[in-house]
């Protein structure tokens, strides 16, 4: 490329130098900046570097600062889009999410590293330590998420096939939950819960709310020519209320369940239902509260069983009876 063409890239190359080779712990001098620009066949003088730094600082999204050390002046970039601690959180999240395939996580981490200096990115790469973690093998999951986001934004119905784990031909594999069955769902929200990513929507055939794990959805398509159920409810959907009331994202009939418990399990209850619940001191070390709009199903009973002898269901009576049946069924397995 002729030198005149390289000169046109001067500001871009200068920003790249600051972005990749500097941070608050690694700074460079003006001669070092000039030398790095020369490696791109870009010739500049000192006063040009100073003027270009002023121009870059007008862009926003970062700040190029200088620090005096002895007789030398050093420059570095700060106030980037992401701090290194924020990038580490995103890296950890990319590794932890089971619905993201392992190779996709590695690709995302490499892209996140581009927001840091080469020195910081080395630290991010060393942070990658969850290889071998249980992750989905559904490599179309990001395409599924893109389509679902588009459906929520445009308020359009989506159709897809839904899969479950099965054991056939001496191996574990995903198989259609209902062979050749295509779900037609009006979207409500996407939500991350209990290490999985869920799509929430209304089944158009039975007009009932359902939850689907996105890593088990395939063959998804947007339906342009059908009117969705409750399009005006998409923007006001109560995601937090939905997650708090449905255990393991299993849709069930909602009930107000009155319980009593000992103080040693107070933390478990608050972790699940938050600090807004009203607690009554019942005496003798027992407390009471009403869990509002709980999805009463085996998933709720399983969670309640974990609390053990430190809690009991008081009412409604039919929920007590269902819980007793659940316990007896479990006991009959042994």
Automatic annotation (TrEMBL):
Domain WYL, residue spans: 143-221
Keyword tags: DNA-binding
Domain of life: Bacteria
Species name: Lachnobacterium bovis
One Gene Ontology term of the molecular function aspect: DNA binding
Protein name, UniProt field: Predicted DNA-binding transcriptional regulator YafY, contains an HTH and WYL domains
